[in-house]
Structure formats: C-alpha cells, structure tokens
C-alpha cells in the first residue's frame, strides 16, 4: 500500500512539471484574456494536485502511526474498496460527506 502511495505521489509530481520557459507572455493584447483564463485553469489544476499530494503525505504519516485505513473522524475501518479507489482517503464515506458539507 505504501508503494501504491509512493506511485501516486510520483504521478502527482509528474502532473505539474513547473512553468515552461518562453510561454505565457503574449504580446498581442487580444490574446491576453484567453491566456489569462488558461493560466487560471492551470492554477486550479495545480491547487487540486497540491491538495491531493498533501492528502497522500498525510496518509503516509498515518501509515507511520499505524492508524492508516481508519477514518480520522470516527476511527472506524475505511472499506478496502474505498481505499482502492482513493488510497489517500482519510475518512469513511459518511464522515467524508459530512466533512464536505461542513466546508461549504
Ligand atoms: Zn468515519
């Protein structure tokens, strides 16, 4: 499972290789709006990739603590099927949906 998470982190690293030289500074003002929204989209992807990477790192810390696989809110075992789909999941399905509601 830890190897699985290490692979997830590597994939996440690969998804945002960093700024590309010479791209993103159009001289034509007509392109400015389009390029801005492109930058916004890239930023949104980066933010979600970083957030998921944080979750993966937190999951690795839970492996160290021997609490991995248990919901951080209710402490119950997270179903294996859920961990297969989201190895970095910190909460069982019901706590995750309650957590998502609290954040809204
Ligand atoms: Zn729970």
What can be said about the biggest beta sheet? none
Mean pLDDT: 79
- Indicate the percent of residues in helices: 55-70%
Order of helices and strands: HHHH
Distance between the termini: 31 Å
Attached small molecules: zinc ion
Quote the beta fraction: under 5%
For the secondary structure, the number of strands is 0
Structure annotation, total helices = 4
**What structural category characterises the helix and strand content?**
mainly alpha
Radius of gyration: 18 Å
Shape: globular
Low-confidence stretches: none
Short characterization:
This protein has about 100 residues and is mainly alpha-helical. Helices cover about 60% and strands about 0% of the residues.
Give an overview of the whole structure:
With 104 residues, this protein is mainly alpha-helical. It is built from 4 helices and no strands. It has helices at 2-15, 32-64, 80-85, 93-103. Helix 1 packs antiparallel against helix 2. The two termini are 31 Å apart. Bound molecules: zinc ion (ZN). Zinc ion binds next to helix 4.
């Amino acid at each position: 499972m830890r190897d699985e998470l290490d692979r997830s982190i590597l994939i996440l690293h690969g998804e945002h290789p960093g700024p590309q030289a010479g791209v993103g500074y159009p001289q034509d003002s007509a392109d400015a709006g389009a390029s801005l929204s492109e930058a916004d989209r890239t930023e949104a992807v980066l933010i979600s990739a970083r957030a998921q990477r944080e979750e993966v790192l937190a999951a690795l810390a839970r492996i160290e603590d021997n609490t991995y696989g248990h919901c951080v809110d209710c402490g119950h075992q997270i179903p294996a099927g859920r961990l297969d789909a989201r190895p970095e999941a910190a909460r069982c399905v019901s706590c995750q949906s309650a957590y998502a509601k609290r954040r809204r």
